[in-house]
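> tool_call: predict_assembly(chains=two)
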Amino acid sequence: METSMNETQQQAKETVFRAPDRGDLQATATVDREVRRTVGEARVADPRIRCNDINVYYGTAQAIKNVNLDVGRNEVLAMIGPSGCGKSTFLRCLNRMNDTIDGCRVTGDILLDERNINAKEIDVVPLRAQVGMVFQKPNPFPKSIWENVAFGPRIHGLARSRAQLDEVVESSLRRAGLWDEVKDRLDKPGTGLSGGQQQRLCIARTIAVQPEVILMDEPCSALDPISTAKIEELIDELRQQFSICIVTHSMQQAARVSQRTAYFHLGDLIEVGNTEQIFTNPNHKLTEDYITGRFG
Amino acid sequence: MNQLILIFVLLLLSLAAYQMGRRRAYGLVDGQLRKLHSLPVYYGLYAAMWCLLPALLVLIAWTAFDGAIISHLVVGQLPESLHGADAGSINLLLNDIRNVRMGLVPPESADPVVVAAAQHWDHLQRIGYAALAVVVLILAVLGAIFTLTRIHPQQRARNAVERLVLVMMMAAASVAVLTTVGIVLSVLFESILFFRLVPVTEFLFGTSWSPQMAMRADQVGSSGAFGAVPIFVGTALISAIAMVVAVPIGLLSAIYLSEYAAPAFRSVAKPLLEVLAGIPTVVYGVFAVLVVAPAIRSWGMSLGLDVASESALAAGLVMGVMIIPFVSSLSDDVINAVPQSLRDGAYALGATPSETTRKVVLPAALPGIVGSIMLAISRAIGETMIVVMAAGLSANLSFNPLESVTTVTVQIVTLLTGDQEFDSPKTLAAFALGLLLFLVTLGLNVIALRVVNKYREQYE
């Protein structure tokens, strides 16, 4: 099994290597299905999440085509690609957030700790407690900072008493690097914080329910550079405990925070591999064009 | 009639001024619009404005005051013998003069003095009309000529026209405010008259309401009692029953429609629910009297309860149904206005749809929901037709929904229908009730605003 996959990847690589010879972007635009086969190491040993043949359809339009991808333990996986390439859609498959969109259909197996979370009988409520999500725009609830963080533990019954809740709130805020900034105003509305603080509050809210995986959908795109730096630092610390998938438009950010990088293009997973290798020595023509800024 | 023709002529004149102003502005720069400060249209409007407005103001002023001026002149011309007569007899005389002029009294059967005065009046009025027409037309033509000759490319015609539009908008906006102030003041003055006859404390705290007054000195028994407590209790009781029906049903249907229902179902169900608001209240009243009240009565009898045929329960239930769309439609709108990102945030934490609705969406939508409930309460308190038909007239001081009670609006209707004397406490009581009702709803709105501001969860 392992060898046969390597062989197909080898073939794909060869096909790809011929594509640059043909030259220009014209060739890339008409690139055929064979060339779109994923290049690189989509699989890892002992994955946290393993995705097999994921297809996503919005009505009749296909947004994700046959994607196979693993998320390792304690790693940050960055997903990059031009707008509309399906990276956010793929991210939302991992905690079934696509269920909330009318007309969206997901096929394929998504194994979280070897359990298929895309199966009909899986209840999304405990799943989403296991796989948390941080959104592009900070979306704190219009409640106090304390209530924001305590929301998840409360609905999942993770704390028995107010004192325990206080503890969870404090430790989550500490881990999100926000405690020192807000400890004197926990009863003030979370919407009154700055954009960067709001986003860290959302991260604290997510880790308060003790997930295994955290999904981040362009978490820094609405933030200033200093807040971005803080969040990136935080992501690196959180990696000790969680697996993190981050969708980003900033290639520098992907290079800074991630260990592995996946490049999506028009619903196809084009290339995945070690972040350093992707950014220094991409194997696929499309990846190279994207990271060198020829389109995107 | 004359004024209408005059206004028509004025409009024609200003239309001509508009055309001329536009052409002139265009001609001044040989069609090179860049050299004009404003578009040619504005020069035309500017000329039309100066042609129409001063003339129109004079016309309105004349129409408002000509009666007073002419009657003053006619009275001044009356024979010496009538000078120094008191206002009442002068008024009678003026009345006679009007009757002669209108042809209600044949001139030959009237007092010759009156006939002469009537002829004088007609004469003055003809002169007045002629003078008015001349003055107005001259003003219009002068205004047009004045502005047309002064048009030059740097003139700020657009600014002047826009200032006029601004003034017109301010006038339109103040109409509603002034009307409200006027209504409140008129109710207030009549109420003050009432409170001269009946002490405020008796009105506010008295527990007996029986507004029948003796018309003659020899009548007995009906001295009138004006304690408003029973009717306000009745209003509160019926409104409370209506809210108990409308708030849960309205809110739950709003939550269902906005959070759970499929878009196709929602697009059909919401307009259907809003049809309820379009049914005339008199139809609800018929429904309450002929269907609901007898049903409640027979149901009560089967349980051995004594139910009045015009029970508060029947009126309240039907009123509640009438109010459902106010609660549901407005609440549905505000729930829909809660950003999807908040729902996504809750779902991503593993909240169920019901937890998301209860703990995130409803708190965020609370101000709007309270607003819709307040609107519904105001409707319930002010609703008239259903209670006139289905609630009783007897002012029982009772909290029992199976008894017959009366409401403020019902009392106002009964006090003011039929022939009235406007100086009896019976009639004036209606104004006092109206004032108190206004103050109560105002107070409710203020409280609701406070509550909303205190508990609102601000999303952006």
